[in-house]
Amino acid sequence: MVKSRLFLSLLGTLLAPVLSTAISSDVRATPVDGMLAVGRAPVLMEERLHNLRRRESPVIEDETAATIDFAEVIRSVDALFREPASPKEGSKEETEAVTTAGRITAEFLENPPQETDRFPLAQPPEEPEDKWIRMAREGYRKKDLELLLAAAETAGPNAIEGYWALWALELRLEAAPDDPLVHAEFERFLQLHAGEYLGELATVRYLKTAAEVLNLETFERHFKSLAWNRDDTELLNWLYLYRLEDALARGPVPAALRKTVKLHLRDQKATDESFRRLGDLLARVDRSWSWDRVLLALQKRQWTEAKRNLRAVPRPLLPASIATLERILEHPHDWYRKAMKKPSSVSARVGEFAILRLISYNRQEAAKFLDKIEEKLAAGRRSLLWFRLGYSAAVDRRPDAAKWFRRADKTRIPRELMADCENVLAWEARNAIFEGNLYSLLNILRGMPEEVLKREEWVYWLGRAHAVRGNHEEAKKRFATIAGNWSFYGKLACDALKRPYPKPTLREPPQEEAVERWEENAGIRRAEVFYRLHWYADGHREWNWAMRGLDDEGRASLAEYARRQGLIHRMINTSDRTKKSDFRLRYPTPLFSVIERSSEGQQLPTEWTYGLIRQESRFIPQASSSVGARGLMQLMPKTATWMAKQLGLNRYEAHRISDIEMNLILGTAYLRTLYESLDESFPLATAAYNAGPSRARIWRTTLRRPIEAAAFIESIPYFETRDYVKNVMSNTHTYALMLHGSAPNFSKMLGTIRPSPASRTHLP
Fold it and tell me: Which of 174, 392, 550, 696 could serve as a FRET partner for 678 with CA atoms 20 to 30 Å apart?
């Protein structure tokens, strides 16, 4: 049984006995016969449970929310107190922690919050047809047309019946792709649902399912009708395949089309049929590209795809035998050891191939070999290799990154040959930020595409780069363009200008008629059915489609409608897209009493918990991620089980992870654990919550000096974690303004990240 501050905090958060006196220093008196000594007044467990259940608990803010088994909590607490206190637990600090936890509990029970929750979380009851809807979808997924149709007929008419018709059409088309009758029915379906998201979805499904049998004219006609999905990778693969085939039939393929297709394939990691067929056709049209796509696969670390592409290269274009090249792929170190004995005998193309493989295996070996043969390489190819080396080192925060970046001439690199080009270029800038070399950052950023430099992060860092060089007026201009934004870099820009942060805006409710109109919107009705079924992705698509083309007033009325329906996640999303948004809708505080209590019980700022939940789940209690995270705070099951054990909840069951109260209890306790283990740094603990404590510790060990948190965050290797930390920290600051009327200086709140030696952690 762990006796830590975390468990003691649990007392303040969960324990609900009727306390008649204040907590005293002898709080650890031994309980007898199921009694817990609280101050000087022992209370029977049965009495405590009776009083708890008799009281209308403010913990339960939604009548459908699952409750905590308080009996189990009390048993765990009693078991803990039966054990003798360790010397550490008997310390002054421990006693003070117990007293504080008890005081919080007593104050809560004596004066429970009376506020009315303005944002109840919707948990609509199941409808009779729901089981048949689920069965219909199961039939679609299993490609069982008979099951799908039987379930649809039983369910009867409802808001999403159009989806069943689409699913049935798709299955029929898969079974008979050449049947003109099915194609005609699909065309009629598209006409019937033109202008709806269902029509957009049907078009995508039709083009993908029938791609093999369509022609360029038909494919382009339907493709051009799309509003959202023109950047769909698979659709673009088929479109370019059709265009190449058409151009090839007419004569030589234009160079512009070949370059467009190369740029399209450059960054893809997909290996589906359309991707491979397009690549194979381009290799026939442009023989030199057959070898270049091998090099692209190496840059993406797609070893299997690289082998496949090798075998498709015409023999005259291979720089060595396939067996030799495959040995390099499989055993790069063995090849390097032999090649270094006589590097002059290695051809430029074999060397290029081997270096790209070595970069992923051993950067130092790759750099040493490149040093030996770089004179053999064309300037563009040589620069590409040095830049890839710099990128690899920068992502891992290695000191060699800047040196290798400098050896590359970015202007000479063929952009169609650099995989993930935009991201790779950005990492040269991130490395300069991480190293504190803002003087050189200006020249680096000037070499990036203009459309990239319009993004907030680069506007801010460009301003910082100008400031370092003494171009203060130019720096101010850059900061001023984003200083009014409620974003991570918008707030940092306010700090740079020493300007106050924008104040949260409130607005009058929209007209009742405008709000009520949404009740009849077919897309919104479909979305609500999907939300009831917890099919959130489908619901989001329908909802966002309904928002297309709305003016500010229209979005405001839809946000208000979402509030009334208890769809807090949609209320936030819609308000975020409203220029003059009501911040009460954009940054809501549902479940305030339980979130405040669980946060304060763990000595965490309530605004931090809100900021994290807003990013993690958008306040969807049933939220579930693709990797298995659950609930408001998106806890992984293993983490929740571990945390429950640390807190003494020995009878915790995994299925309770999504219970509102349990999820908040375990989530805030885990967040507190991360916070304490990472120098009480908000950004570090937030990064650890998303990417895991081991990764956060590793990133900190790469520091060679204290670094401002903003620079540390921008150089986080994982783009998901990088954006996550920015959003959570910005949310936290905004919630502080909303809850308290003021907020600390944002830059100071982020703080400084200090180096720390490598250390292992037992935290999950």
Answer: 392
